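Q: Given only this backbone (155 positions), what sequence would you predict?
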């Protein structure tokens, strides 16, 4: 579902997906990139501002990028029940004006990542994870090209 290619090289698997784009407003567009990785042992953090790792077996493809909507919920790490994003935004001090512009990634069943804020607790890789999935968000320049990485020496 969603189209893509699975490549095997030795014991490593890589998944490439056609770029999915979502527009926040006419001059802001983002692409969501996905790759499948073998188990990683040296990861200390599972998410950042524009990337997150997941247990690939816990994700029901396809994944899609969208804006947060009223009533959306997430299962936070360490909790047995879901939490409304509005409560999560309040706890994290997200300004009211920014909340409707917050990007979320959904799989078939639920929100798996509130971009830059939190991942779903039941998707976090563990010692028994067989395959990791890394999702990365990239800004698309108005010309249509993917933006360069902010760590690039050119920026």
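A: Predicted residues:
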């Amino acid at each position: 579902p969603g189209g893509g290619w699975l490549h095997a090289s030795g014991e490593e698997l890589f998944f490439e997906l056609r770029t999915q784009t979502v527009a926040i407003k006419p001059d802001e567009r983002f692409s969501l990139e996905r790759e499948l990785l073998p188990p990683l042992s040296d990861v200390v953090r599972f998410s950042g501002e524009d990337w997150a790792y997941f247990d690939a077996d816990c994700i029901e493809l396809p994944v899609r990028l969208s804006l947060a909507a009223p009533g959306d919920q997430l299962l936070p790490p360490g909790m047995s029940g879901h939490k409304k994003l509005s409560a999560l935004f309040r706890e994290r001090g997200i300004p009211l004006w920014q909340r409707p512009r917050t990007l979320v990634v959904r799989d078939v069943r639920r929100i798996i990542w509130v971009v830059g804020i939190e991942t779903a607790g039941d998707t976090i890789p563990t010692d028994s994870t067989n395959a990791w999935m890394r999702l990365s968000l990239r800004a698309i320049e108005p010309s249509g090209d993917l933006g360069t990485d902010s760590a690039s020496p050119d920026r």
